[in-house]
Amino acid sequence: MLRYHTIPVTAFQQNCSLVWCDETLDAAVIDPGGGLDLLLAEVERRGLKLTAIWLTHAHIDHAGGTGQLARERGLPIMGPHPGDQFWIDQLAQQSRMFGFPPAEDFTPTRWLADGDTVALGHTEVSVRHCPGHTPGHVVFHHAGAQRCFVGDVLFSGSIGRTDFPGGDHGTLIASIRERLWPMGDDTVFIPGHGPESSFGRERRQNPYVRGT
Question: Which InterPro entries did the record assign (predicted)?
Answer without folding.
Answer: MBL_Glyoxalase_II, Metallo-B-lactamas, RibonucZ/Hydroxyglut_hydro
